[in-house]
Amino acid sequence: MAGESIGCRPGAAMQLEAKVLTESIKNTKEQIEKVEKEIEKICGSGKEYTYLLTIPGFGPYVSAVVLAAIGNPHRFENIQQLKRLAGLDLNASRSGKRSSNAMPVISKKGKRVICAMLFTRQPWWLRV
């Protein structure tokens, strides 16, 4: 009884929609594979790119985006400069408070794309 009263039987339109969606997903997967191969061709020769790939969760896309946002990583003298670029440096808002009472927070200044890649992929990176 419930099988007859709930839902509807798949018709020709539903079958066509399922076929179109399946083909669309297949095409999107193929395009992603092509883009990842191109990224590897472009970035693959750099040792920095290869190093980023060793981080769990960092695939070709994330590694390329982070490297593109950073630019030449050798221009940084220390990790603090890189954290500042990413907006991950601590900033204490004092606003009349004594410095011992001010609570440091992440500044949230810097390149948003780096933060987006780090927070959506590997939040444990912040412990470094």
Verbal overview:
The chain is mainly alpha-helical. 56% of the residues lie in helices and 5% in strands. Helix 3 packs across helix 4 and helix 4 (60-70) runs antiparallel to helix 6. The longest helix is centred in the first third of the chain and has 32 residues, at 12-43. The relative contact order is 0.09.
Distance between the termini: 60 Å
In terms of quaternary structure, the protein is single chain
Mean pLDDT: 76
Largest sheet entry: 2 strands, antiparallel
Strand order of the largest sheet: 1-2
Encode the helix/strand succession as letters: HHHHHEEH
Count of DSSP strands: 2
Q: Name the poorly predicted regions.
A: 123-128
- Rg calculated over all Cα atoms: 23 Å
Helical segment count: 6
Sheet/helix structural class: mainly alpha
Percentage of residues in helical conformation: 55-70%
Spatial shape: flat
- Tell me the β content: under 5%
